[in-house]
Amino acid sequence: MNAAPPLRARLHHLQLGSPEPQRLARFYADVFDGACRQIGETWVCRGPARCLAFAAGEPKTLQVAAYAVDDAAVLDGLAARLEQAGVARVPSPTRLLAPDAIAFRDPDGNQIVFGIANAGSTPSSVVPGRLQHVVVGSADAARMADFYNSVVGLRVSDRVLDTDQTIKTCFLRTDDEHHSFAVFQTAQSRFDHHCYELPDWNAIRDWGDRLAARRIGVKWGPGRHGPGNNLFLFFHDPDGNWLEVSAELERVPDDRPAGTWPHEEHTLNLWGQGLLRS
Ligand SMILES: [Fe+2]
Questions:
Q1: CA atoms of 244 and 132, how far apart (whole Å)
Q2: Do 10-115 and 130-268 show the same overall fold?
């Protein structure tokens, strides 16, 4: 299949499943200085440039990943590509994007939405952290990477390849930031993590102190990823979901060819210990 034209979008919100969605909402409201409110059966926590929703479900599950686009022409192009590829659309599962949002399931069944963001009031906050990327694990990362590139229209920034050249990780972008979506090869398809971009390295230090004040331990990092070159620090929410805060994520010009990296610890963390998913 020919490469689709680039799709311009940015990650807008995620909905996570949890046996105790209200508990997760309280955690995110505290850690991110967000304001939470209940909409139907869903808890929605908003802050500047970030929005997370929580609903009843299995723990550590990604129920919805929603991307915002700037105009309807982007949606028209996406709709045409989905139809051409025979991908069925599903009713939009979110009220945080306009009703004409386009929703579908990727080859692993993840529910993905693209649409125009509804205006929503967000509280003022001094805690930086822009919702920036979401990552899933897949039992067939190559198929997922091809779907997001060829059908949805994301561009490939970097691939991590095994010695036999099979795809272990693929990083894809929806604007000039290195990745807003990525997929790891894993034994079973699953949610992996999501990330908030910070203005600089000092903000990562401040987040470490913020977590320490709440007795939330750092689980991985600080370090620097190879692909994307971003500084990072990982921690867990009460359900065990991985959260990442990041800074200095690479900006990728349109004409930069996709890169390749070897599947090794150094690729995942240039500074030391990696976290290999397979
Ligand atoms: Fe990440």
A1: 10
A2: yes
Euclidean distance between CA atoms 184 and 173, whole angstroms = 15
CA-derived radius of gyration, the chain: 18
Q: How far is the CA of 34 from the centre of ligand 1 (A)?
A: 21
CA pair distance 264, 253, nearest whole angstrom: 26
Q: What is the CATH number of domain 10-115?
A: 3.10.180.10
Give me the residues near ligand 1 (ion), CB cutoff below 5 Å: 195, 244
Q: What separation in Å is there between the alpha carbon of 243 and the centre of ligand 1? A: 8
Predicted TM-score (pTM) of this structure: 0.95
Assigned CATH class of 130-268: alpha beta
Sequence ranges of the domains in the chain: 10-115, 130-268
Q: Over its length of 278 residues, how does the chain's per-residue pLDDT go in tens digits?
A: 445 567 999 999 999 999 999 999 999 999 998 788 999 899 999 888 899 999 999 999 999 999 999 999 999 999 999 999 999 999 999 999 999 999 999 999 999 999 999 876 555 667 999 999 999 999 999 999 999 999 999 999 999 999 999 999 999 999 999 999 999 999 999 999 999 999 999 999 999 999 999 999 999 999 999 999 999 999 999 999 999 999 999 999 999 999 999 999 999 999 988 887 88
Read off the tokens for 267: 């690729």
What gap in Å lies between CA 30 and CA 272, rounded to an integer?
31
CA of 210 to the centre of ligand 1 (A): 20
